[in-house]
Design a protein that fits this description.
Blueprint (H helix, E strand, L loop, with lengths): L7 E4 L2 E5 L10 E4 L2 H9 L6 H20 L7 H18 L4 H17 L5 H30 L16
Helix pairs in contact: 1-2, 1-3, 2-3, 2-4, 2-5, 3-4, 3-5, 4-5
Length: 166
């Protein structure tokens, strides 16, 4: 599935979000390099809509796990799992009324817990990134199905821009 029309892009191991506050006049892509950046994107409503927020927070959990492996103190599976649980709790509080985001966060928490059994903190990160990507790809597929049914209802003159971050 293509991210061509997604307001989220995972590129170069970072998340880029389309700042929806500026639409339709501007298309500003903002880099989310950490779980805290993702929390800001959610809190300040750069991303909107239940499913999009769910995808965003899933990536936020993966970023939190990756951050833990990049700290000066050596990472362990347990320390990465603690970082995952802390990120899940922080992001859950920001999305308390979003059932889909809660589902995504529980998916990420469970994925981290299962992946931590092998003891490799870097493998946990890769597994979490892969799970966040699957959540995102599933959302893109859903949106494409909606678009397929909705496209005939749009006037032929409507243009949907496809600019992405470089």
């Amino acid at each position: 599935m293509s991210e061509a029309f997604s307001p989220l892009v995972w590129k170069h191991e970072n998340l880029y979000v389309l700042d929806q506050r500026r639409l339709p006049a501007q298309q500003d892509w903002v880099a989310c390099l950490s779980a805290e950046d993702v929390a800001c994107a959610v809190r300040d409503r750069w991303v909107r809509g239940g499913q999009l927020v769910a995808c965003t927070v899933a990536y936020g959990v993966a970023l939190a796990a990756r951050q833990r492996t990049q700290q000066s103190e050596p990472a362990t599976a347990a320390s990465v799992q603690r970082a995952v649980e802390q990120a899940v709790e922080r992001l859950r509080l920001l999305t308390a009324d979003n059932v889909i985001a809660y589902w995504a966060l529980m998916q990420m928490k469970d994925t981290g817990r299962v992946a931590s059994a092998n003891g490799d903190p870097f493998a946990i990160v890769e597994t979490l990134i892969a799970r966040a990507r699957r959540i995102h790809v599933q959302d893109i597929a859903r949106c494409q199905r909606i678009g397929k049914f909705g496209a005939p209802l749009l006037a032929a003159t409507i243009r949907v821009p496809a600019d992405q971050p470089t």
